Amino acid sequence: MDVKTELRKSWIIMIKEFKQILRKKAFMIPLFLFPIVMIIFFGYGMGGTVKNVDILVINDDTGTASSSLVQEIGSFIPKYGDVKMFSIIYTKDMGQSEAERKIDAGLYKAVLIIPQDYSERMARNESVTLTLLTDSSDTTSSGIIINFMKQLFAGTSNSLVSLNIPDIYGKLQYIDFLTPAIIALTVFIGTIQTMGYAIAGERQDGTLVRIMMTPVSRGAVILGKTLHQLILQLARAMVLIIGAIVILGVKMNGSWLLVALVLIIFTFGAVGLGIAISAVSEDMISFQAISMLVAFPSMFATGVFYPLSSVPDWMRWIAYIVPLTYANDAMRTIMVKGQGLAFIANDLIILLFFAVFYFGLGVYLFRREA
């Protein structure tokens, strides 16, 4: 064997491979950008702390002790942080039931109710009980807030204070917070990936070209693939929910029909996004690179594992333009809080907008590129 000849052939093959990659313009950007994006989103998205969390303080006390307490809570900055943990909103003459409705609506992560005789009791060194309501559907934020309050009132100056912490939604675990978002994430990534195999993959192996040569219209192709995804992802989500309930003991407090409605609208948008990515991808390698650049970082910017309050402000703005954020919120509102259509109306409107936009974009690009 002539080693020199073999090395020269290997060199030619290597140059050929580089030329092929360089011709795939859609592949080049995510090839180098994806690792940077993942470092950023892993580094900042896996938080586990909270900051500037909106807390409503219902203070019916007119003394100085309650004012000092609220000031102490509002000025607290974590040891290794530089931002206040809480953003205090004041009110009075509000009952517990109305306060719970504020939490149901997602306006506040917690409500602290200070009784009107708080300052008097503290002055007389008598015990006093405060009521702390938390949005326990967000188990991370709720746990951090409760731990902070317990430590605060365990101090020497506040040792007479005890906390009453009702379970608004029952006893919840982190798995109850995580499961609805994991289901939405599974539908999102699963739909995009399977649409890639259905379009970019079929274009690569020639199946799509052969289909287009038949009397079947492009519209029929898109409709058939969309219906397939709707049925597949809806069935997949139902299996995941039932499995989580039976195996993990996850609570399902809301309507199955509302869950189905959210997932149908959400899947339409994911189908459109999958079609759009497929249409601009030369082959499956390019599709995988672009889709991972779009889908995978979404896990860390949309509150799947941790609440949005734990991520930097710039990442939160990214979350607002990603449909997965609103699907997560709607799924948790239904499954954990057990709320109805009125409480997810805003999420549904935004998801519907994304669905129309992405589906329209996907159809346009498919008709142009196919």
Give the helices and strands, then pairings.
Elements: H1 3-23, H2 25-45, E1 53-59, H3 64-74, E2 86-91, H4 96-104, E3 110-114, H5 118-123, E4 128-134, H6 139-153, E5 161-164, H7 174-205, H8 207-212, H9 218-248, H10 256-279, H11 284-295, H12 298-301, H13 313-319, H14 323-335, H15 341-369
Helix pairs in contact: 2-11, 7-9, 7-10, 7-11, 7-14, 9-10, 10-14, 10-15, 14-15
Molecular structure report:
- The chain has 370 residues and is α/β, with parallel strands linked by helices.
- The protein folds into 2 domains: 53-164, 3-Layer(aba) Sandwich (abc type-2 transporter like fold); 174-369, no CATH class.
- Helices cover 65% and strands 8% of the residues.
- Strand 4, helix 6 and strand 5 (161-164) form a beta-alpha-beta unit.
- Helix 2 (25-45) runs parallel beside helix 11 (284-295) and helix 10 runs parallel beside helix 15.
- The radius of gyration is 26 Å and the shape is elongated.
- The two termini are 47 Å apart.
- The mean pLDDT is 78.
